[in-house]
Amino acid sequence: MNAIQLKGIVFSGSGEGSSFIELPWVKTQIAEKLGFTPYNGTLNMRLNENSLTLKRHFLKRAKPIQISPDEGYCRGKCFPAVFMGKLECAIVVPEVKDYPDDVIEIIASVNLREKFKFKDGDIAKVKILLR
User: Fold this and answer.
1) CA–CA separation, 101 vs 87, rounded Å?
2) pLDDT per residue over 9-46, tens digit each?
3) What count of other Cβ atoms lies within 10 Å of the Cβ of residue 31?
4) Per the structure, how many domains does the chain have?
5) What one-character DSSP code corresponds to residue 12?
6) What confidence score (pLDDT) does residue 52 get?
7) pTM attached to this predicted model
8) Domain containing 49: what range?
9) What is the rounded distance in angstroms from the CA atom of residue 71 to the CA atom of residue 120?
10) Which of 8, 2, 32, 1 shows the shortest CA–CA distance to 83?
11) What is the CATH number of the domain that holds 29?
């Protein structure tokens, strides 16, 4: 398997993703390692049960792109992806204690919520690419 498709429900987060993405060292590493400058925010997606099982299996064997933090910040893993079959993006998995297993955060060069006219409760799909 070279990729997995995950499906979930869009929901509003706490805003912590955007404050993290706005940090200069985060933007620089994402641009260097993933090839795009991220929009200042993430799209939150709560995975359905089937997608959660796929994610768990996939992340055990996939090689992540590491975002190395400045002092006082947590590490993060990124995985290149394609959003809704149309747009290059990445999922971000923060290495934070008690981070919900069924949630993924998606970053892209544009505001995904606006571009795809998503509201909370809408269903979204993202294909994560195996490296």
Assistant:
1) 24
2) 999 977 676 777 888 888 999 999 999 999 999 999 99
3) 13
4) 1
5) -
6) 83
7) 0.89
8) 3-129
9) 34
10) 8
11) 2.40.30.30
